[in-house]
Amino acid sequence: METVLQVKGLSKQYKKGIYASHNVTFDVGKGEIFALIGPNGAGKTTTIRMISTLLQATEGDAIVAGHSILTEPDMVRKSITYLPDEAGAYKTMTGREYLEFMASIYADNGEQAYEFVKRGCEICELGDRLNDKISNYSRGMARKLLLARAIMPLPALAILDEPTSSLGKEEINQLMETVRGLKAKGVAILFVSHKLEELFELCNRVTVMRDGEHIVTQDIGDMTEDSLINAMVGRTLDNLYPKEFGVKGDVWLEARNLNEAGVLHDVSFKAYGGQITGFAGLVGAGRTETMRAIFGADRLDSGEIYVKGEKVHIRTPKDAIKKKIAFLTEDRKGQGLVLSLDVRTNLILANMKGFSNGPFLNKGKIEKSGQDNVESLRIKTPSLDEVTAQLSGGNQQKVVIGKWVNTDADIFIFDEPTRGIDVGAKIEVYHVMNDLVKAGKCVIMVSSELPEILAMSDHVVVMRGGRVMANIDRDTPHFNSEDIMKAAWGGELD
Question: Rounded to two decimals, what is the model's pTM?
Answer without folding.
Answer: 0.67
